[in-house]
Amino acid sequence: MHVTLCRRRRARVAATLSLLLPMAAAQAVEISGSAALTSDYVWRGTSQSNEDPAVQAGFKFAGASGIYGQIWGSSVEFAPDTRASSEFDLIAGWSGDLSDALALDLNLTHYVYPSTTVDLDWTEANATVTWQERFWLQVGHSRDALASDTAGTYAQLGARWPLTDTFRVEAAAGRYWLARGSGYDDYAHAQLGAVWMFAAPLELRLTVHDTDASAVQAFPGLAGSRIEAALQASF
Known about the structure:
The chain contains 2 helices and 14 strands, in the order H-E-E-E-E-E-E-E-E-E-E-E-E-E-H-E. By secondary structure, the protein is mainly beta. It has a single domain, classed as Porin.
């Protein structure tokens, strides 16, 4: 059974990469990336690293047409029986300006957990609209949300306020609607953070997270109130 699951994961990874490679070959691409060390990998309000520090890095390949491919990874820590230790997000999408004030990003994200003994991989379609580079609305949908074989829809509304050339404040609130058969209830979360670019391209982030009672019940010990500190470099 484990061998079959691994083969399925490899097949999905290969299919995703097959979307990215033609893009890279067809046009000159701009390469960017990031690396971070965080005190807690918090995703949609819940800890993905069992409240332990995590190491993260990613690369993005973007063409002049707006088509891009991206790979991002992080250390994770789930229930011991899953043996999950790493996550890789394979992303294929398009981003561009709709007007002087509006920008749109459309992508397909495939979440991969290569070291697990159970099949935790899943895929989500995402759309993000940004206004004046300060306010955004993100909507994501999957027919296999959280690898549950059931549908889930996520929405987040956020904003950032530059206070100086090197300091800004960011806030976001999100809600996850999950099908009854997923084993999880719908839940909401919010976050408020401060970002200080003290030595470009190095940033220091401090973020306060909170979730509602439904998240605490669904993810005991991993949801609720928490503070995340991260050191990030972009290149």
